[in-house]
Design brief:
The protein has 487 residues and is of the alpha+beta class. The chain contains 16 helices and 23 strands. The radius of gyration is 21 Å and the shape is globular. It binds adenosine-5'-diphosphate (ADP).
C-alpha cells in the first residue's frame, strides 16, 4: 500500500472543490467541483443551505477518494469559507436554521451599537474590529429570531460553528474547529487560544454550544469509508490556508486572494500586532506546536463585482471576458466604481456604504465601466496595503496573488502599478486547497515547512510601472469616489 495522496477539500462561498494532492509528485493530480447556491432574502442579507454545502462537499470528496483509491489516501485537509455560521441539531446533524454567510449584514445595526468598552475588549482579545462580518452577532441573531434552534438549545442539543466544524461533524462525528476559524468568530482569545467567557456572555452564546478549538495540524477525526479510515488531519480558514499554501511562512511575507471578496494577509511572525487603521489581527497558522499571527484586510466584494457585470448587467458571458473589454479602451474615461454592494470593510468599516459608479458621461461605454470595476478591485487592495504598511512597519515590495480573478493579467498588472510593488503569481494557483493539503501532510509527517517553501514556483511576476505619479493620481481620484459612497 502506498498512501501517497492527501485530499484537500476547499469549501468556498461560490463552490466546493476537492483535489487529490500527490505528495511524491508534489502537485494536484485530480479535482472535482460543485457550485453552491446563495440566497439574498433581503437587502444586504446572504444565506446558504448547510445541507447543500455538506452534500456537495461529500460529492466532491467521494469523487477524489474514488480517483485515488481510499487505501492510497493518507488523510484529508479542509479549508473553508470563514465566519459563516451554521446551527445544527447534535442528535440528527440536521441544520437548525439557514447558514448566515460572512457577507450578510443583517446584524450591522446591532454591531454598530456595541458599547465602547466592549469594542475595546473585542479588539484587544480577538484582534478583530467589531462588525457584522464575524460569527458572534450572527449566532446571536439566529438564537434571538428562530424558534427551532432555541428549542434545541433548551434541550442541550444545539451545536453552533463555522462551516469547517459542520463538515467535520457530518464527516467524522467530532465537534471541533481550528484556531484560525475560531479566531474569526469574535468570541476567541487569540493569545490564550480559548473561547472568551465574557464575550460569549455578551453575545449570549454559551461556550457549551461551540466546538473545541485545535491547532491546524491536529488529528480532528476519522472519516470512515468502505475502503479505509481516513483521518481529517488539517483544518484552516480559507484565507489562512491560502497564506500557508503560498508558503508565506515568515514575517513580512503576504498574499492577496482575489475571489468573491478580496483578502490581503501578511504574516507577522509570533508577533500579534495591534492594528490601528481598521485592519484585523488574526491567527495566521498553528502548526508544529507554534502559533503565528497575521494582519488581515479585506474587501467584501471583488470578483463578485465582475460576476455582477456578467450576471446582473449581462455585459459579457464569462468573467474572463472582462479582461478583453477592459483592454479595449485606453483608460476608464474618468469613470470610477466603488465596490460597496454590502458596505465597505477596512479601512472604512461603513456597513451602510453602497456601490456607485461616478464620472459617467454620454461617451461612457461598457468597456469603460468594466475597466473601472477591475481597477476598483486593485484600488481597494491598495487601501488595505497602505494600512498594512502603517500598522506593521513592514514595507511591501512583493505580494503573492491567487484566487479566481488573479487569472486576469490586466488586473494583476494594474495592481502592481497601483501598489508600486511586484505581484507574484504562482504556478499552482489553488493556494487554499494547497494550504489544506500541506497542513494535513505536515500533520501526517509527509511534508515539512522547508519543503513547502522550496516547492512554490512563480508562473509570472508583474512588475510596477516606473510612472508612479500617474497611478498615484488615479488612486487619489478613486478615494474621492469612495468618500461619495460612504453612508
Ligand atoms: P471563491 O473562492 O470566493 O468562491 P474564486 O477564487 O473561485 O472565488 O473566484 C471566483 C471569482 O473570481 C468570481 O467572482 C469571478 O467573477 C472572478 N473571476 C474569475 N475569473 C476572472 C477573470 N479572468 N477576471 C476577473 N474576475 C474573474
Amino acid at each position: 500500500m502506498n498512501k501517497k495522496y492527501v485530499i484537500a477539500l476547499d469549501a468556498g462561498t461560490t463552490s466546493v472543490r476537492a483535489f487529490v494532492y500527490d505528495t511524491e509528485k508534489k502537485l494536484f493530480v485530480h479535482g472535482a467541483q460543485q457550485e453552491v447556491s446563495q440566497s439574498f432574502p433581503q437587502s444586504g442579507w446572504v444565506e446558504q443551505d448547510a445541507n447543500e454545502i455538506y452534500y456537495k462537499a461529500a460529492y466532491v470528496l467521494n469523487d477524489c477518494i474514488s480517483y485515488a483509491g481510499a487505501q492510497n489516501v493518507a488523510g484529508i485537509g479542509i479549508a473553508n469559507q470563514r465566519e459563516t455560521v451554521v446551527l445544527w441539531d447534535k442528535t440528527t446533524g440536521e441544520p437548525a436554521a439557514p447558514a448566515v454567510v460572512w457577507q450578510c449584514r443583517r446584524t450591522s445595526a446591532f454591531c454598530a451599537a456595541i458599547e465602547r468598552d466592549v469594542r475595546e475588549k473585542i479588539t484587544s482579545v480577538t484582534g478583530l474590529v467589531p462588525d457584522a462580518y464575524f460569527s458572534a452577532s450572527k449566532i446571536k441573531w439566529l438564537l434571538d429570531h428562530c424558534e427551532h434552534p432555541r428549542r434545541l438549545l433548551k434541550q442541550g442539543r444545539l451545536c453552533a460553528g463555522t462551516v469547517d466544524s459542520y463538515l467535520l461533524y457530518k464527516f467524522t462525528g467530532e465537534f471541533a474547529t481550528d484556531y484560525t476559524n475560531a479566531s474569526r468568530t469574535m468570541l476567541f482569545d487569540i493569545r490564550k487560544l480559548c473561547w472568551d467567557n465574557d464575550l460569549c456572555d455578551y453575545f449570549s452564546v454559551s461556550p457549551d454550544i461551540l466546538p473545541q478549538p485545535k491547532p491546524c495540524d491536529a488529528r480532528f477525526g476519522v472519516l470512515k469509508t468502505s475502503g479505509a479510515d481516513l483521518p481529517v488531519a488539517g483544518v484552516l480558514g480559507d484565507q489562512q490556508a491560502a497564506l500557508f499554501g503560498q508558503a508565506c511562512l515568515h514575517a513580512g511575507e503576504g498574499k492577496i486572494t482575489y475571489g468573491t471578496g478580496l483578502f490581503l494577509l501578511f504574516h507577522t511572525g509570533d508577533r500579534c500586532v495591534r492594528p490601528q487603521g481598521g485592519l484585523l489581527s488574526t491567527i495566521g497558522c498553528a502548526v508544529n506546536g507554534k502559533v503565528s499571527y497575521a494582519l488581515e484586510g479585506s474587501a467584501f466584494n471583488a470578483g463578485s463585482c465582475v460576476q455582477w457585470l456578467r450576471d446582473g448587467l449581462g455585459f459579457f458571458e464569462s468573467s474572463a471576458e472582462s479582461e478583453r473589454l477592459a483592454r479595449s479602451v485606453e483608460n476608464s474615461g474618468g469613470v470610477y466604481f466603488v465596490p460597496a454592494f454590502t458596505g465597505l470593510g477596512a479601512p472604512h468599516w461603513d456597513a451602510d456604504a453602497r456601490a456607485l459608479f461616478c464620472g459617467i458621461t454620454r461617451g461612457t461605454t461598457r468597456a469603460h465601466m468594466t475597466r473601472a470595476v477591475l481597477e476598483s478591485i486593485a484600488f481597494s487592495a491598495k487601501e488595505l496595503a497602505d494600512c498594512m504598511e502603517r500598522d506593521s512597519g513592514l514595507c511591501l515590495a512583493c505580494v503573492r496573488c491567487d484566487g479566481g480573478a488573479s487569472a486576469n493579467d490586466f488586473l494583476m498588472q494594474f495592481q502592481s502599478d497601483v501598489l508600486g510593488a511586484a505581484v507574484d503569481r504562482p504556478v499552482l494557483r489553488e493556494s487554499t486547497a494547497l494550504g489544506a493539503a500541506y497542513a494535513c501532510a505536515l500533520s501526517l509527517g509527509l511534508a515539512d515547512e522547508e519543503g513547502i517553501a522550496a516547492r512554490r514556483v512563480s508562473e509570472r511576476v508583474f512588475k510596477p510601472s516606473p510612472d508612479r505619479e500617474r497611478y498615484a493620481a488615479l488612486y487619489r481620484e478613486y478615494k474621492k469616489a469612495v468618500a461619495r459612497a460612504l453612508n
